[in-house]
Amino acid sequence: MRMLELKVGDPWILRLVRKWLKAGIFENGTVTHPEEGTPQGGPLSPVLANV
Question: Does the structure show a pLDDT above 80 at 50?
């Protein structure tokens, strides 16, 4: 997030990305919260790759 804050100045976009990274993943009836990274093939991956 620190590196992203250097490139993106809009606080609303940073807030959205932060929430997106902390969102849980519903899998087999349970919700898990990832510790790091983005899910492979998730919609956030290309957004972060282009920044």
Answer: no
